[in-house]
Design a protein that fits this description.
The chain contains eleven helices and nine strands. The chain is α/β, with parallel strands linked by helices. The protein folds into two domains: 169 residues, TPP-binding domain (Rossmann fold); 113 residues, 2-Layer Sandwich (SIR2/SIRT2 'Small Domain'), CATH 3.30.1600. α7 packs parallel to α11. The structure holds ligand BJW.
C-alpha cells in the first residue's frame, strides 16, 4: 500500500498537464490490471506461469499451434469478460479534450477502445487479441475476429496445459490441426492471433504513425517538442516501445509514471523533475486528471 500523492505533487502535475498540448502516453498491462487482466511480468503475470518462448513466438506456433490457440482463446475470453476501469475512461476523456495527445498502447485487450478512446489518437503497437491473420506473411490476410472459443472443443475458461518434463503432450484430446481456423484467402496456412510476438517487427504502418506524430505531422528530420510523457503501468522492458520514453524526454517532455512498484524496470531511471504516482493506475490516473 502506498501513501496517496501529496497535494503539492498533484498541483504541480495538474498545472503542467493543463498547459500541455503535445502529450505522449505509453500504456502497459498495469492499466488493465484492475480490470482483472493479468499483467505479463509482475505478480500473477502471464509470463510467471507460462513461458513466453513457448507461446509468444513464431516458432512456438510452428511447434504447437493447438497450444498457442488454447492460450489465446483463454486470453480472449478473459479480455471479453473484463470491463474498462476508471483509468481507461480518464485517458479516453483526456484524449478527447487534448487533440495533440497520442497513446501508444502495448495492450492487446481492446479495453481502451471499449472506453471510447478516440481512434485516431491511439496506436495499438502490439496488435489485438481480437484480430487474426494468415500465418504466412506473404499472404497478408488479416481480419477482425471476436469468436470465442476459436477452437470449439476447447473450453476457453480453462488455462492451457503447457507441456513440461512430466507432461509432454499439450493437446486436448480430439483436437487436431484441421480444427484450427485456416486462412480463407490462401486456403493453405493457418490463421494466427494478430498480436506481435517476440522477434517479430512491429506493424510498419503503426510505427510510421508514431514517427509522424513525433515529427509533429511534418516530414521534418527532427522530433517536435513534446510537453508531457505519461508512462502508465508498464515495466518498459520491451523494445522498441520502451524507447519512446527516452525519445520524448529528449524532445523536452517532463515524465509522469503511474506504477504499482517503485522498483519496476519501467521506473528504474526516474529523473528529479519526474512525477511518480505510486499505486493502482485505475485510482491514480483519474485522480491526477481531476
Ligand atoms: C501496475 C498495476 C496497477 C501492475 N497499476 N501499475 C533492444 C534491447 C533488448 C531487446 C530487444 C531490443 N529490441 C528488440 C528486442 C527484443 C524484444 C524485447 O524487447 N525483449 C525484451 C523482453 C528484452 N523485442 C521484440 O522482439 C519486438 N520486436 C522487435 O523488436 O522486432 C525487431 C527485431 C526483430 C528481430 C530481432 C531483433 C529485433 C516485439 C515485442 C513484442 C512484445 N509482445 C508482447 C506479447 C503480445 C502478445 C500477447 O499479449 O500475447 O507484448 S510481450 C508483452 O510485453 C506484451 C506487452 O505489450 C509487452 C510489455 O509488457 P508490459 O505492458 O510492460 O507488462 P509487464 O507485465 O512487463 O509490466 C506491467 C507493469 O505494470 C509493471 O511495471 C507493474 O509494476 C505495473 N503494474 N499492476 C499500475 N494496478
Amino acid at each position: 500500500k502506498h501513501d496517496p500523492p501529496s497535494g503539492e505533487m498533484l498541483a504541480s502535475f495538474t498545472t503542467h498537464l493543463q498547459s500541455s498540448n503535445r502529450i505522449l502516453v505509453l500504456i502497459g498491462a498495469g492499466l488493465s490490471a484492475s480490470s482483472g487482466i493479468p499483467t505479463y511480468r509482475s505478480a500473477g503475470g502471464f509470463w510467471r506461469t507460462f513461458s513466453d518462448q513457448q507461446l509468444a513466438k513464431k516458432s512456438a506456433f510452428e511447434d504447437d499451434p493447438i497450444l498457442v490457440w488454447q492460450f489465446y482463446d483463454y486470453r480472449r475470453q478473459q479480455a471479453k469478460a473484463a470491463l474498462p476501469n476508471p483509468a481507461h475512461h480518464a485517458l479516453a476523456e483526456m484524449a478527447a479534450r487534448k487533440p495533440g495527445l497520442l497513446s501508444i498502447n502495448q495492450n492487446v485487450d481492446e479495453l481502451c477502445q471499449r472506453a471510447a478512446h478516440p481512434a485516431g489518437q491511439i496506436i495499438n503497437l502490439h496488435g489485438s487479441l481480437f484480430r487474426v491473420k494468415c500465418f504466412d506473411d506473404a499472404c497478408g490476410y488479416e481480419e477482425e475476429n471476436h469468436a470465442i472459443p476459436v477452437i470449439p472443443q476447447f473450453p476457453a475458461t480453462e488455462p492451457p496445459r503447457v507441456p513440461d518434463s512430466t507432461n509432454t503432450s499439450s493437446s486436448v484430446s480430439g483436437v487436431s490441426i484441421d480444427d484450427l481456423p485456416h486462412c480463407p484467402k490462401c486456403k493453405v496456412s493457418l490463421l494466427r492471433p494478430a498480436a506481435v510476438w517476440f522477434g517479430e517487427g512491429l506493424p510498419e504502418d503503426k510505427v510510421n504513425q508514431v514517427e509522424q506524430w513525433m515529427r509533429g505531422g511534418s516530414d521534418a528530420s527532427e522530433d517536435e517538442k513534446v510537453d508531457l510523457m505519461l508512462v502508465v503501468g508498464t515495466s518498459a522492458m520491451v523494445w522498441p516501445a520502451a524507447g519512446y520514453i527516452g525519445r520524448a524526454r529528449k524532445a523536452g517532455a517532463r515524465v509522469a509514471y503511474f506504477n504499482m512498484e517503485e522498483k519496476s524496470a519501467g521506473v528504474a531511471r526516474p529523473e528529479d523533475n519526474d512525477w511518480m504516482f505510486l499505486g493502482d493506475a485505475a485510482e491514480l490516473v483519474p485522480k491526477a486528471f481531476e
